Amino acid sequence: MQFKINPKNPSTGALKVIPVFENGISEFLTEKLALPFPPASLFSGKKDTFYSFESKDHLVLLVGLGDNPEYKTLENSYRRILAKQASLAENGIFLDFPDTFTSAQLEAAVVGFQLGAYSIGFYKKEKAKDFKKLKVEISSTMEKVKYLTERAEKIAAAKIEAFKLVDLPPNKITPEYLGDWAKDLGKKSKLDIKVFDTKKAKSEGLEAFLAVGRGSAKESKFIILEYRPSKPKFHLGLVGKGVTFDTGGLNVKTQGMHHMKSDMGGAAAVLATVQLVADLGLPIHLTAIVPAVENAIDKDAYLPSEIIGSHAGLSIEVIDTDAEGRLILADGLSYLVKNYQVDQVIDLATLTGSSIGTFGFECAALFSNEGSMSHGLQEAGEAIGEKSWPLPLWENYGKEMDSEIAEIKNYHGKPFAGAITAAKFLQAFTHEHPAWAHLDIAGVAFGDSEFAKTKTGTAYGVSLLLRYIENQL
Description:
A hairpin with a 7-residue loop joins strand 12 (307-308) and strand 13. It is built from 14 helices and 20 strands. The protein is α/β, with parallel strands linked by helices. The two termini are 31 Å apart. Strands 7, 8, 9, 10, 11, 14, 15, 16 and 18 form a nine-stranded mixed β-sheet that branches. Strands 1-6-5-2-4-3 form a six-stranded mixed β-sheet, sandwiched between helices. 34% of the residues lie in helices and 20% in strands. It has two domains: 2-141, Leucine Aminopeptidase, subunit E, domain 1 (3-Layer(aba) Sandwich); 157-470, Aminopeptidase, CATH 3.40.630. The relative contact order is 0.11. Helix 3 runs parallel beside helix 4 (145-167). Residues 164-465 form the Cytosol aminopeptidase domain. One of its GO terms (molecular function) is aminopeptidase activity. Keywords: Aminopeptidase, Hydrolase, Manganese, Protease.
């Protein structure tokens, strides 16, 4: 897209997009359009409504926002423009923002507008419309509109990257692909990148990580990205679950396996967040780890009842090979805490069906051993529409993971508290770090939406982490 800020007049034939709040609609439209139109019976400005018509000089699209739209409402409203009404925009777009718009509202609208250009038809002969050359004019009296537009471009680019990493098929998105993706980002953004192959991972003691990938022909990759500006305000560590496809291992999944390309939603969020933090030049030291594996089945696959090692030195009894995400996260968390002096640690993972059983598809399950961190993540998510809700980390839940033969087991084997016991397993590998949070994003990283006929990636975590980081600067 080609953005132009505050042109004197809209380009000839451009679609003029005007956001409308439900309150004061009549006066606003009279001022904007110089005529009392349309009748309230046709358009009232209610949330998620649209009205298009042809004026003297332009096509006009009115976007109803209701009274007090949330960030996500604005993002989705503007995403619909290109996703659903692209035929109106063939001669360009003129986004006419009112004086009452805040900077957050403008950002949400411009981010959402760009997300509307995303399509999952990667392998169709007839490609979706290409919006790269679309001329977009933005009109606003806001002082920092150019800066906000450039910022929104970077946010949208990161979210689209997260979409792609989840939506592309597992024969494309392999552990090696994620490693190469990180290396390419490192060259572009001048990051420190390390990608451990099997031999290097073994020498580093990443035994739990390596066990999960043993049954796959695709070599596992342990990916480390480090963004280090000159004067960082704090050091944040991220770990993202990167299971590029999950068969369940020898405890093979019996349904829904075709959706398991999404089991690296945490990795997608972490990688996209690193890209965004670097693009925005935020003053934080960021270290991110993505243990990337494919959980497949062959003669070398790890076995139920097997005892495996771990980077933290704890022996693990494997009860269920489909509880593999926590095994690779265990080594990722341990390696991060032991090798980098991070002030805070956050991991994101599509970890348990139990979190969906608790919250459905509305929010992530949040666990933290630090109150202000938990509150900060909740607050950030509420502000941008990526919600989470806390669950307890009481010690009695940890006892559920006790093993008779090893120091810990990877699954308690009971039909209750699955998300909590998984979190307690992870906590055992954090070396008692005082500021750790775990987001179980199984219900929110991949799902149904109005923008595709099948389940797709949501980029959950990218905007959340950005808001959480910036709230601390």
